[in-house]
């Protein structure tokens, strides 16, 4: 059976570290904690699980800290987590079974990363990350901020998921690192341009964010998933600024780079629905609803846009046209994904009454959702 080193970098994680490490109990053969300057009880929490606790002077470089942690590993494979990540029980069991049968020819194992959830516990945002890697390959982390693990060889996509369960974080940390680098006259890589733009957007600095997304796209060197994401995020910026026409341009711009994705089709559906151009809205929501599910990749996936959301919006569209049987059918399809959604249950009752009475009703009666 393969052995696993859990390698983590931490700083002021007393609120989350115990939960994280408890979720890995009896699965990691060694636990390596690299502390980058905690001033709380993080180390005391770590000592309940391991004596392999090390200090690393923080130099505003996440890759350097992670590479140091990896250098301390002694087992066959290295698993990495952040302190606000956990394995839920079903995923603990999957990891335990996977570990017992892990093929030593595998160089890296990707796992889903569940980033956000709706009120019913359904995953609404996810991506994939190389999470378990062969130590002998000496894979390296790259990037001071939003670092990534460069891997190659025999890579397996597992059905194991890591769940992000954040309690708190320093929301200004990353943008400070980027701005300090720029103040020193350092150049940002294409990847850093993208992530700096994300930080600017998250801080509500929309015009500057757009400027850096454009700089990123102008390099022509971005990963496709980041390129598409930039189009969507610029559309979000213009939406926040109230510029719907440039929002539309950014949505359509995504088609330069790849076949239509469900997210962008839903954006177009919403654009036309807001203008009461219902037939055009129906076209784009139908495209979103009938696209194949995205293939496995490491990019971010907005699950709603390829599952329940287009069906809910099609319910709205067909109701406005007085085609209540189609509206009802699409609401039922949306309910398959969210069977307790109050909006959809309202629509169901309303449309059942309409179909039973077979008389005209207001086209604004069904519940909708904003898509941007």
UniProtKB/TrEMBL annotation:
It comes from the Bacteria. InterPro entries: Glyco_trans_2-like, Nucleotide-diphossugar_trans, TPR-like_helical_dom_sf. Coiled coil: none annotated. It holds the Pfam family Glycos_transf_2. Residues 5-100 form the Glycosyltransferase 2-like domain. This is Glycosyltransferase family 2 protein. It comes from Paenibacillus profundus. The lineage of its organism: Bacteria, Bacillati, Bacillota, Bacilli, Bacillales.
């Amino acid at each position: 059976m393969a052995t696993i080193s859990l390698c983590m970098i931490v700083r002021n994680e007393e609120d989350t570290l115990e939960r994280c490490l408890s979720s890995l109990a009896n699965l990691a053969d060694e636990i390596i904690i690299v502390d980058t300057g905690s001033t709380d009880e993080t180390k005391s929490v770590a000592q309940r699980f391991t004596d392999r606790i090390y200090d690393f002077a923080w130099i505003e470089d996440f890759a350097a800290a992670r590479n140091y942690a990896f250098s301390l590993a002694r087992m066959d494979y290295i698993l990495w987590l952040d302190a606000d990540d956990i394995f839920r029980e079903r995923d603990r069991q999957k990891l335990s079974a996977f570990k017992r049968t892990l093929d030593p020819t595998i160089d890296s194992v990707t796992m889903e990363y569940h980033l956000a959830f709706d009120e019913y516990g359904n995953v609404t945002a996810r991506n994939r990350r190389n999470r378990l890697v062969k130590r002998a390959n000496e894979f390296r982390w790259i990037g001071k901020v939003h670092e990534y693990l460069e891997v190659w060889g025999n890579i397996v996509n597992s059905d194991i998921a890591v769940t992000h369960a954040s309690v708190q974080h320093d929301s200004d940390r990353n943008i400070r690192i980027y701005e300090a680098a720029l103040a020193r006259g350092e150049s940002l890589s294409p990847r850093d341009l993208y992530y700096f733009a994300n930080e600017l957007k998250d801080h509500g600095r929309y015009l500057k964010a757009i400027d850096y997304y454009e700089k990123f796209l102008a390099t022509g060197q971005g990963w496709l998933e980041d390129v598409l994401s930039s189009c969507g995020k610029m559309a979000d910026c213009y939406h926040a600024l109230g510029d719907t026409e440039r929002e539309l341009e950014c949505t359509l711009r995504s088609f330069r780079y790849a076949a239509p994705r469900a997210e962008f089709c839903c954006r177009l559906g919403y654009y036309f629905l807001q203008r009461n151009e219902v037939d055009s809205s129906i076209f784009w929501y139908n495209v979103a609803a009938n696209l194949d599910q995205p293939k496995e990749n490491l990019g971010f996936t907005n699950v709603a846009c390829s599952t329940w959301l287009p069906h809910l919006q099609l319910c709205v569209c067909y109701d406005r046209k007085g085609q209540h049987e189609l509206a009802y059918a699409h609401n039922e399809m949306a309910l398959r994904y969210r069977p307790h959604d109050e909006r959809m249950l309202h629509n169901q009752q309303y449309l059942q009454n309409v179909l039973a009475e077979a008389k005209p009703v207001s086209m604004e009666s069904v519940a909708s959702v904003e898509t941007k």
